[in-house]
Design goal:
The protein contains 3 helices and 10 strands, in the order E-E-H-H-E-E-E-H-E-E-E-E-E. With 166 residues, it is mostly beta strands. It has one domain: Lipocalin (Beta Barrel), CATH 2.40.128. Strands 3-4-5-6-7-8-9-10 form an 8-stranded antiparallel beta barrel. Strands 1-2 form a two-stranded antiparallel sheet.
Length: 166
C-alpha cells in the first residue's frame, strides 16, 4: 500500500510526524495480489467464459483518438494484450467475469514482473465487440504516475494465440 507522508505538526518536545494512509487504488490491489494467487483463481484450461475469443483493438489515452493497434485475447482462463506483453513484459493474467444483460463484463489485474507497473483492465464484451478502460500505473519511490486508456475492438478472424509457460 502506498503511504502518503504528511507532516501534521512538529512539536518542540518530540518532532511528531504522522503517517496518513491513502485509500487503496486499483494499482495497490494489483501489486498486493501475488501472481500465484491470480493463477489459482483462473478457470481451468479452456473453460473460462470468454476463452477462445480474440479481438482486434485500438487503444489510446482516454478522451483522445486511439494511437495503438493491438489485439487482446482470452485463453486458458487468462487475458493477454499482445502489445502490452511485447512492449512492457506483462504476462497473461487471470480474468474475472460477471454476466450482465446483453453480454459479459471482465476485469484483469496485470502487473509487470520486471518493472513496478500495473494495469487494471475493465471491459465489456457484447456480441462481437469489446470496449473498456485500462488504468496504467507506474510506481516510483517519490510518486505514482497514472494514465487511463480506452480500448475498443471487434472479434478477430485470426485464431487465439497459444499461450506457453503457464
Amino acid at each position: 500500500m502506498k503511504w502518503i507522508f504528511a507532516l501534521i505538526g512538529c512539536l518542540m518536545l518530540g518532532g511528531v510526524t504522522t503517517l496518513i494512509l491513502k485509500e487503496p487504488s486499483d494499482a495497490d490491489h494489483a501489486a498486493a495480489t501475488p501472481r500465484a494467487m491470480l493463477m489459482a483463481l483462473r478457470d481451468p484450461s479452456g473453460t473460462g467464459p470468454l476463452d477462445g475469443q480474440r479481438f482486434d483493438t485500438v487503444m489510446g489515452l482516454q478522451g483522445k483518438p486511439p494511437e495503438l493497434e493491438d489485439y487482446v485475447q482470452f485463453s486458458h482462463g487468462l487475458f493477454m494484450s499482445r502489445e502490452c506483453t511485447d512492449r512492457c513484459n506483462y504476462p497473461p493474467s487471470a480474468y474475472l467475469v460477471r454476466e450482465v444483460e446483453g453480454g459479459t463484463d471482465f476485469i484483469v489485474e496485470a502487473y509487470c514482473p520486471t518493472k513496478n507497473t500495473t494495469m487494471v483492465w475493465r471491459g465489456t464484451v457484447r456480441d462481437d465487440t469489446v470496449h473498456g478502460t485500462v488504468t496504467w500505473t507506474v510506481s516510483r519511490w517519490y510518486w505514482d504516475t497514472q494514465q487511463v486508456l480506452e480500448f475498443k475492438g471487434s472479434l478477430s478472424d485470426q485464431p487465439v494465440e497459444v499461450l506457453t509457460n503457464l
